[in-house]
Amino acid sequence: MNHLRFLRYVDEVARVGSVRQAAERLHVAPSAVIRRIQDLEDELGAPIFERLPRGMRLTAAGELFVAYIRDRTAELERVRSNIEDLSGLRRGLVRLVCSQALAPVFLPHAVQAFREAHPAVEFEVNVADHLHALDVLRDFDSDLALVFNLQPEPDLQILGSYEQKLVAWMHHTHPLVEKPSLRLRDCVDWPLALAGRGTAGREMLDRFLARSSVRFTPAVQSNSFEFLRGFLHREQAVSFQISVGALTDGGDLVAREIEDHGFPRGKLLLAQLRGRRLPVAAYSFAEHLKWHLAEPAALLA
């Protein structure tokens, strides 16, 4: 299937915008990449790239051709997966884009549980926010998306939707853990560790605060949930996280529900591109995720 390898040359140049960088990533000579691009342009009768002083940019014809390449590559992966499934090998590759909140605990457990039954299946996991996850799907860099507050789009097929409460998150030794009921106002007397602006949970919290008399002055803000998790281990601070992201595997952090009326909640969506036939491994993992997302805490039991 050498012709598919040559098509990958075009796709790689389109991604990085440089023949030299693409050649390095493909482990081939730049001259080989240039030659194959020229051959394809001759066959198409139109230029695929604009040659710029500092790189390569897709032409309108190139945009169409790269979309064809990515669609064909994804279809080949599906066919390969079907063939492997028929042979009983149960091999395959699952490519998933997910929210940060799922990366530390829930998703590793879900992958581990799946691989116990299918040890030959490989995974590529890409962490992205709700604004960029669709781009990853549309570029065929992922089969599935598991993302909090992913925006519905006509080309998005929702496989599952799971309500997520925004909860307070703190170390198990924090005094607020023992409080019978917890309100947002109780949290402001403690250092606040908030996710950076632009994250879905922070956007929900800010909208709620705009309608509330409670005012927050965060001690720290970060776009890294791992940093926030680490900070809660070292200071008696309070953070906020969606419920699945606040799961711990026997760790020291505790989630508490906020009792304020109308405190925000959103949707964790499992999705794929509409009309795309998933590889067998990806389809099976999607079904596996649906089962565990219905009762996420049971996965850690």
UniProtKB/TrEMBL annotation:
Domain called HTH lysR-type: residue spans:
1-59
Q: Which UniProt keywords apply?
A: DNA-binding, Transcription, Transcription regulation
Which family is annotated?
Belongs to the LysR transcriptional regulatory family.
Q: Name the InterPro entries on file.
A: HTH-type_LysR_regulators, LysR_HTH_N, LysR_subst-bd, WH-like_DNA-bd_sf, WH_DNA-bd_sf
GO CC, sorted alphabetically, is: cytosol
Q: Which organism is it from?
A: Alcanivorax dieselolei (strain DSM 16502 / CGMCC 1.3690 / MCCC 1A00001 / B-5)
- What protein am I looking at? Putative LysR family transcriptional regulator
**Gene Ontology MF terms:** DNA binding; DNA-binding transcription factor activity
Q: What is the lineage of its organism?
A: Bacteria, Pseudomonadati, Pseudomonadota, Gammaproteobacteria, Oceanospirillales
